[in-house]
Design goal:
The chain is about 40% helix and about 15% strand. The protein has about 270 residues and is α/β, with parallel strands linked by helices. The chain has a four-stranded parallel β-sheet, sandwiched between helices. The protein has a three-stranded mixed β-sheet with strand order 5-6-7, covered by helices on one side.
């Protein structure tokens, strides 16, 4: 392990070893999985995973969160998160992510405290802290700890340490909330999440590893990595994909020639996992 990364790993272990037991808001993504694994290694039975169950979280490729916890002997508490019931959420204003994160962390805190945990941690990394993410406000207001960010872990550091520790999430692609596919100001439509998830899975099956299907009215705009755009726009392949997306209920399908961009739906950047 490279020296600077080892220093960050030691700092993370030291931070997690102090104070009471640690509850981790666990999405199953690369960041929260690393944080949870280190917390469990340091604290043993004094680590708890708290996971929200929501249709807005795409399945995508990656490790199964329940199996991840089971193999490491980590207690897992799950709760249903119905975003459409959060006041103001479906209006999709610029503070949508704040409203959701605030609600999620309030629920996670309630579970953590009911189990005797006085600390709740989130998997935000140092790269996230440099971006304008509305969810960060909820983290600060509810006193949720961010050990990875505080110890200087970049996303690249998270992946490198995950590899060194043999975690199955090391190469897992980001899988942000499906509501990020709707542009700010366009009313959110929970009933369309299934079609968006199915469309992105079709694209992954065709070998596109970074995929976003953005909702534009009743149509869809496809984003893939910039170096894969020319393949996506190939006549026969795009024609076949277009037909499949139309069958899912989209009324029009377009490929974005600029490729995948954070915040490509005209809103805050995709949230970390």
């Amino acid at each position: 392990m490279e020296r600077l990364l080892k220093q960050k790993h030691d700092a993370l272990r030291n931070r997690l070893s102090k104070g009471g037991g640690v509850a981790v808001a666990f999405s199953g993504g690369t960041d929260s999985a690393l944080l949870l694994a280190v917390a469990a290694d340091v604290r043993g039975g004094s680590a708890l995973a708290v996971r929200a169950l929501t249709p807005a979280q795409p399945a995508g490729p990656g490790a199964d969160p329940r199996e991840f916890c089971r193999q490491r002997g980590i207690a897992l508490e799950e709760f249903p998160l119905e975003e459409q019931d959060i006041p103001g959420f479906l209006r999709n204003t610029p503070d949508r992510c704040y409203l959701c994160k605030r609600h999620l962390f309030e629920r996670a805190w309630a579970i953590a405290r009911s189990r005797g945990f006085g600390r709740l941690c989130d998997g935000s990394n140092a790269d996230d802290a440099r971006e304008d993410r509305p969810g960060n406000r909820a983290v600060a207001e509810l006193k949720v700890e961010t050990p990875l960010a505080d110890c200087g872990f970049s996303k690249a550091d998270v992946r490198e340490l995950s590899r060194a520790l043999g975690l199955p999430t090391a190469e897992q692609p980001s899988a942000p909330c499906l509501y990020t596919r709707f542009p700010t100001g366009q009313a959110l439509q929970p009933e369309r999440l299934g079609a968006i998830a199915a469309a992105e899975e079709l694209l992954r099956q065709e070998g596109f590893d970074t995929v976003r299907v953005r909702a534009e009215g009743t149509g869809a705009r496809i984003e893939v990595r910039a170096d894969q755009v020319s393949r996506l726009m190939d006549g026969p392949l795009f024609g076949a994909l277009e037909a499949q997306l139309l069958s899912l209920g989209f009324t029009a399908v377009a490929a974005d020639p600029r490729g995948y961009r954070l915040g490509g739906a005209g809103q805050a950047p995709d949230q970390p996992q």
